[in-house]
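Take a careful look at the sequence and tokenised backbone pasted below. I need to know what the token row says about the fold.
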Amino acid sequence: MSDNRKLKVFLPLLFALVLALGMYLGHKMPQTRNSDSRAFFRNNKGTIQEVMDLLKYNYVDTLDVATAQEEAIEGLLSHLDPHSVYIPPADVQEVNEDLDGNFEGIGVEFNIIRDTVNIVNVIAGGPSDAAGLLTGDKILRVNDSIVVTGKEISNERIRKLLRGPRNSTVKATLLRGSKELGVTIKRGLIPLNSVDASYMTAPGVGYIKISKFAATTYTEFMEATRKLQKLGMQKLIIDLRQNGGGLLDAATRLADELLDGNKLIVYTQGKNSPRQDYNCTRPGVFEKGPLTILVDEGSASASEVLAGAVQDWDRGEIIGRRSFGKGLVQEPFDLNNGGTLRLTIARYYLPSGRSIQKSYENGRAAYEEDIANRYNHGEFLNQDSIRPVDSSLKFKTPAGKIVYGGGGIMPDVFIPFDTTRYSQLLTELYTRNVFGNFIYEYYTANAGSFKQYKSAEDFNAKFHVDNALINSFRNFAGSQQVKTDKLGANDLQEITLRLKALLARQLWRSEGYYMVINHGDKVIDRAVGELANMK
């Protein structure tokens, strides 16, 4: 092996060993969390700096030290669990915004259509709404001189231009119809809501959709629950499908609102992290009414904490399909370069004592393929096809129900994946964004006709997709090289539903969307049926 090849192999290993030593020592020090860990690494980086200096002043060729260091970090983490990850400096802000539940910007949704930035939604009450921007406006220039049209533009570049500290301003030149106009927008704090919808789905039955667990989730949940109770809610469906988790604290605070007494919600424990219990501490807003929680293979982490606590205390029924199986707790450690190391420090255990973390002994690739393997094995369609997670990991709830550890949360009521909603034609329409592009053009051309609907409920009850709208959509799909001449009855039903749901989203965002798209959802229908039998 040549000297250069030896050095290429040796350098990442050397960086990994040095980083491992620093992480070990840092974690052993008292009070090493968050900002304290940042100070420790900043003041004790002698060995790492020594290696970098040697490379900088003695290595024969120019070396991108930052890239080599990131590769070394990734190499080291590949030997740990799949959820210990390095977040590069460029991505830290976006990740933190998602968990904070807000970001600072102008408050629009945009899409790049035919090399032009099109405003597809203006957040009501946000900075752009106050500045008079409308759905359908096209952004031509930013700050007078920065042109944002043409093949070189990208979503990331536009986001960087439009986002910025609150109370700062951005100037934009818009095209509205055939007329150019200039606007000045004062940036503000834009919410990233985690409660996507809350409405009455049946007489006495409330529905709350939670997409993630962020810093604002608890407040949003409380507002949604109290709103529904004023509307007569006596029974509740919480939809956690495709909720990948987030902040553990948000999940435990929600669980406290559903469980009575001082019940244990979850506890965490690791080799270097002493056991920490999370118990109920106060009277909850919905401790007694019949309750169901919806989960699927995309429900993970904090979602599984909430669903698992409800299941382990026999508080309600879990409906859907087996959840993801993530029972590990990560803590963020800020690094000198502006990046963040999210390191797994503990496992969490549900009230029955079970850990639902699935195995990662076969490496990250196998771990990431688990969901696809479940589908291929038939688990999405047949409960009998679910492979035993570990028959030896049996636990009992207070009512004597058997629950399992070692691979996600098994639902009390299994509902198979609805394949009728994902035919080959529908999949092509989704992946090529035919629905989104059509709805944008149709809505901007007919915005005035929707002013008659005063609320999402009003729209859902009164608006009907007619043949003229269906034919317009089919013609548009044809212009996008998607043939709809062999449209089946199921496809037509799904297209009709999705067109109405996306129009509702244009008007009332996710609240309107879910109110429509959930019509005929078999999991929700089953939940309503189960609740009818609960006392």
